[in-house]
Amino acid sequence: MTTISAFMTGDHRACDAQLADLESHVEASRWPQARTAWAAFGAAMRCHFRREEEILFLAFERATGGGGGPTYVMRMEHEQMRAAFGQLDVAVRAEDKKRVLALSESLMVLIQQHNMKEEQILYPMAEQLVEDGDRVVGEMQALRPESS
Q: Is residue 147, in this structure, part of any structural domain at all?
């Protein structure tokens, strides 16, 4: 079975690729495809957050005896990203190319900083501390993106 780090890092890369897909359609003013890419990106990110918040973070907190520390920070950053998604949604619906590209660039920076913390700190810690890592990965793999 795959590790927590390998699975979740792969999930990060898949979400990143979907955001890049959105940007390429917006740059070319292909708005129907941009809306489709936006919906796919949103569904993938909501699924990723659920994998972390409903499965991984809970397992990590059980293993460490608390909900503070890294998982608290990650949840706060998820909320920041969700707020950015709302702004980006308005811009995509308005077909505001300049705004979409500016917001997506800012979002990508936020995502990359967040992912680096998870990949370098949280996921390795989870692999060391969570005793049933294979079960956790299996549960996360079973969660699939829902359409909006």
A: no
| CATH number for 103 | 1.20.120.520
Distance CA 98, CA 46 (A): 25
Tell me the pTM. 0.93
Q: Is residue 41 part of a domain?
A: yes
Domain containing 72: what range?
4-142
Q: What is the pLDDT along the chain (148 residues), one digit of tens a residue?
A: 799 999 999 999 999 999 999 999 999 999 999 999 999 999 999 999 999 999 999 999 999 988 778 999 999 999 999 999 999 999 999 999 999 999 999 999 999 999 999 999 999 999 999 999 999 999 999 999 886 5
Burial (CB < 10 A; 0-12, 13-18, 19+), residue 114, is middle
